[in-house]
Amino acid sequence: xxxxxxxxxxxxxxxxxxxLPTAGADIQMELKRPILESAEYMGYATAxxxxxxxxxxxxxxxxxxxxNAVARAKLCxxxxxRAVASFGGFxxxxxxxxxxxxxxxxxxxxxEKLLCESRPGFFVAGHVYVPESADFKQPYAAVLVPCxxxxxxxxxxxxxxAGVLLARAGFVGLVFDPVDQGExxxxxVRRNCGVGHNAMGALAMLLxxxxxxxxxxxxxxxxxxxxxxxxxxxxxxxxxGNSGGGTMSAMLAAFDDRIKATAxxxxxxxxxxxxxxxxxxxxxxxxxxxxxYGLNHLGLLLLRHPTPTLVNASHDDFFPIDGTLxxxxxxxxxxxxxxxxNRYEMTEAAGKHGWKAGMLAxxxxxxxxxxRDEEVVLPTADERFRMDVANPASRLGLETMLSTTEGRxxxxxxxxxxxxxxxxxxxxRDDLDLYTAKRPKMTTxxxxxxxxxxxxxxxxxxxxIRPIVVSEGRTNGMAVVRLGFSEPTGFTMPGVLLxxxxxxxxxxxxxxxxxxxxxxxxxxxxxxxxxxxLVVDLEGLGEIGVTKRRIHVGSCVDDGLxxxxxxxxxxxxxxxxxxxxxxxxxxxxxxxxxxxIVVDGTVAIPAAHARAADAKLFALLTIRNPPxxxxxxxxxxxxxxxxxxxxxxxxxALRAYDWIELLDL
Length: 665
Hints:
- This protein is of the alpha/beta class.
- Helix content is 39%, strand content 18%.
- It is built from 22 helices and 16 strands.
- A nine-stranded mixed β-sheet has the order 1-2-3-5-4-6-7-8-9, sandwiched between helices. The chain has a seven-stranded mixed β-sheet with strand order 10-11-12-14-13-15-16, sandwiched between helices.
- α5 (157-168) links the parallel β4 (140-146) and β5 (172-176).
- α2 packs across α18 (520-528) and α3 packs parallel to α19.
- The two termini are 31 Å apart.
């Protein structure tokens, strides 16, 4: 197939022989001209189809296991173990050094200002809402409330409401700040918290860790704190939250056996609907390769089956309710054979994304049912509780919502001002130092093999990338062949082959972040020297560089495509390396010479991996505007707002090698 195609190219070049171009303008026009029809979503569409099929397959697996208790238990154990392994396991359990920095008295409850360390020097600030009514006796059941994407964290109005209502309903409620929110801003420069979450996650990914690992460990340590309180019954712990807090509620219930009831709101849907509707979301909401080992939204609900779970959803949420209903129907199929479907409930609310009063009320009622054995399903079964929720804030004592100053746990309102405090970037850097010290010495061959394995670079036969001629013509005596490099998934990479009349130099392959036209000047110079040139747009770049959904539009690097590959246990770095190799193969086979590859920007990373996969394929690798080494990015992130992406990272690579080390092979 390859040789037949090359014969066609050879004939085309011969027939089009003429004069060399004398200006770069014609070259730029040829490079700018689209090659593929309706190609802008090419990378996204093909990757998304794989994700949607994998997500549906996971649903089918859980439903099939529902008819066999042994099979279901085995699936739960294996999925949970593989998920934990995918982010490197949990950190060491170290002393919390918990202390109360202040107490605020309120009518019927009080608020304790909690400061503790989930890891040494990694401070967590929270508010503990404690009942004082004679209607409730110690030890109390306790409910953890992880916050969603509120810049104010625990001081967000809805999260204060949750704490107050929990205390008034007789629970100890712990509301705490997530990383980069509230008093846990990691840098003095204020940024959208989602930007911080993704920066944390992409850097942690390089160590085989994840943003979820950081967030989940914080939540687990808050459970440790609650379990140690003398006024809390450690056998009756629940978790509820909204949006990002809904994510953490589902995740914590799935991974911590101490949770006896959970109520995630504005989160549960399914991955195929979420990714298509609003993108893959933040680092704490995704795990590497999770669709390969059975973890999706349905899997989260079943991982600790049959933990009582209330799913709250809104009709006009950006976590699509169509996905929620699909997951709910799948949950019924998976649990009805065992007679446990009655341990799950779903509520629907009108309106957009958010923790609405009714959703908050039903969540607390759910905790009463399963943590205190009260026979209520909805708040309407209890007149006193319904009145508290339905009446104005003044009837609840909510007119005393805490101000930023009053609610501070730390003196300055920033945990990073505390002596010995470490940011999440310092934690990641310290982990890097540990892995670097343990890294085995490797030969160049071993390092190359490690890179190929980590980036999931397939053999040529497995990748099966085939060049096809889209169109052919000539401009100013220059042969112009427009190519599509087709893969079995349906993905096609566009490229332009330009051949001078007389070939008298080494062929050259160009690829970069800014697309084909950015190389117009260099291409013109190469052609003038008799060098044939192939310029390609790798997956997610140039002509095929549009992603359907952006994450945190306007404030965060768009690497949704990289995250889709991450969810699949794949690597966009690896896919791009395969595409570069396929393009280089064309030049080598046609012109019987090993090509030079010239790359710009972050394309240097897949280029280095392509070289690791086949060092003999490139006569020379020239890099323009190279990115930082991965290790340097982690070290600089301690003091600078480094925004690394999933697109340019390889899961766990820094445990064995840095991309820049591949240049020495």
